[in-house]
Amino acid sequence: MAARPSSPWLTVVGVGEDGELSAAASAALAAAAHVVGGERHLSLVPASACPRAERRAWPSPMLPFLDVVMGWRGEATVVLASGDPLLHGVASTLLGRVNREEMTVLPSVSSLQLACAAMLWPVADVRLVTACGRPVEALAAELFDGERVILFSADGRTPAAAARLLVAHGYGGSRLTVLERLGGPQAQAHAMTAQDMGDRAFDDLNTVAIELVAGPEARLLSRAPGLPDDAFENDGQITRREIRALTLARLAPAPGALLWDVGAGSGSIGIEWMRAAPRARAIALEPRADRAERARGNAARLGVPMLDMREARAPEGLAGLPRPDAIFLGGGATAERVVEICWAALQPGGRLVANAVTLETEARLVAARASLGGDLTRLQIANADAVGRMTGWRPAMPVTQFAAVKPR
Asked: How many Cα neighbours within 13 Å face the side chain of 377?
């Protein structure tokens, strides 16, 4: 194993459209043996600024070339990036490859700051969504009347894709300002409503400022667990709204935490887990291809397109998965030894929650409580319904819920 360098060898420099560099950035470039960046970034930095360096443009795809960059370990290397390289930028990717003491980041003004300045929006009051390397459907999780969103575009077609999403969700009256080449002499702003956007294309370097306006057909879908059942396309294989809210409360979504949703059905538990906490992740297992595809559609429509949906059955499909912080067993609780396998995989301090509606599955949960501890709760929901010309309570099937926290 190569020895760790005693001082930073890798400097990530944020470059704005004006090409202005700080004294520290200029010094790093002057000393660099290697400089790598996008063609646009390299064009903003003259060769005279890095006279000793070999200059390389990122190939496409970029990620495999990171192995080449890691091969320069110990040699002064500068990576050029846009604005703040730690704000959905390459520096975040590089942190997964190097130790902190090996890297220095020199940011310039970010596109988020420039966009908020152009709109006169306080930065602390906006939501940030990126479509760079991610589906634009993530915007759907931010749809609340009056909210302000800054969207980082992947290319010149992203604003139109975002506008189509807004129209589909009843937010066609939302105001979009497409900000091209922020911070440079060619900066331009184009304002219109989502419903007036059409298929218009813009400069590939653009950021979109969105003022959300809910139309009469828009639906409020809170981030709090317990969305209406009809928010999910389903064939009846769904954890019902009230039971789902109680289940998520036991699972306790947390920022960046990973959930296994075993026997996902419509994907409702994993989807609400991801909506409930920043950066929350979920791996959902569902053996039926039609249900898995339906869950993927639900995830995209509800703003969490990064749901990791796998067509697999427990316990076989659990092999090799990263250790979770929480596990929900819905349709998967009946498989032989799945409770024990999940418990063994769970991180210390993690939560296991399983729901049963049949006596056979309930027996497994009673046995799990005897061996693992935890709580058993009987949940009974009844809804008002017509009884002839009057109204009465119509009970749903009772649910037995097992919940346990793994000792640290």
From this structure: 16
Distance CA 8, CA 24 (A): 13
Q: Judge whether 305 and 335 are in contact, CB under 8 Å.
A: no
SS3 content of the chain, % helix, strand, coil (to 5): 30, 25, 45
**Cα–Cα distance between 205 and 184 in angstroms, integer?**
11
- Strand 54-57 with 34-37, pairing: parallel
Quick: pLDDT tens for 55-88: 999 998 888 999 999 999 999 999 999 999 999 9
The SS3 call for residue 53 is coil
- The burial of 359, by beta-carbon neighbours within 10 Å (0-12 exposed, 13-18 middle, 19 or more buried), is given as exposed
375-379/399-405 β-pairing: antiparallel
Q: How confident is the model at residue 236 (pLDDT cuts 50, 70, 90)?
A: confident
Q: pTM of the prediction?
A: 0.91
Give CA angle at 269 (275, 299), nearest 5°: 55
